[in-house]
TrEMBL record:
PANTHER family from the UniProt entry: D-ALLOSE KINASE-RELATED (PTHR18964:SF174), ROK (REPRESSOR, ORF, KINASE) FAMILY (PTHR18964)
Entry-linked SUPFAM superfamilies: Actin-like ATPase domain
Pfam families assigned to the protein according to its UniProt record, in alphabetical order: ROK
Organism expressing this protein natively: Acetobacter sacchari
Protein name stated in the entry: ROK family protein
Domain of life according to the entry: Bacteria
UniProt xrefs under InterPro entries: ATPase_NBD, ROK, ROK_cs
Amino acid sequence: MILCADIGGSFIDFAVVSPDGRVAHRQAEPTPIHDIRAFADILTKLCAPWPDVALHIAIAGVENPETGVVHAANIPCLANAPLTSLLQERTQRKVLIANDADCFALAEARFGVARGHKNVFGVILGTGVGGGLVIDGRLVRGLGGVTGEWGHGPFIIPPPATPPGLDLSGVIPSFRCGCGQTGCLDTIAGARALERLHLWAGGSAATSREILTQWESGEPEAGRTMDIYLAYLGSALALVVNTTGATIIPVGGGLGGSAALIAAIDRGVRQKILVQCDAPLVVQAVLGRDAGLLGAACLECESERR
């Protein structure tokens, strides 16, 4: 068994996970985002009943495999912290850490809707956009520990100059992204970004859930917004499929709960990829809130295979 923690900016979700994916002794604690000592104390307390059992962590951030330093934007106390070594010393056990979107992809590949697929690209459509890549059952980790971040890098790039008489009123603006760049897909694709895109496209103020509901009911304003949204997401994911050879893309996160949205994204992707296929590529994930814990539990096997 493995002790697993799925750590977000609000709560630490903790459980004991067995090799067959059973989750037991589940509990939650608020995340001390400003106090690294309190952060380590909570994990030490949670682990205490199981001495010498390894702790695996899924975190909304990334650990650089070369330096061991963690970057987690929504947990300020972990900025530039050597978290693995710190927790190993405090908890007196082996600690493995991975990005939560990577753990999501690994979980869906091992236990979920992507089981049996060789190349799996897992997508998170939540407040922001994330992803993880699993090939031959192994999590792929890239430069600086980053892989699968299809939401970042300038994607929406306006012309450097506007020729006289050319109307660019319909061109998507290059919004500033939280990663520091401008024009990332994340600036229009996450839940909050979709709400901003809807306002830009002339819609009334609405939550992402309301926009989806209006779109499904045929409301024209929402339809205009979603046409833009789906065009960009379909293009970005088609590029991902052509690059990785993914044969399935499980989608999680709040927006991933819309079956109509996932079906529409899937249609757009399959229209744009090089190899046409009849079977759905973009599908709803099935593991829900267990995905982070289950993916973290798989890190031992994944680490041994590298």
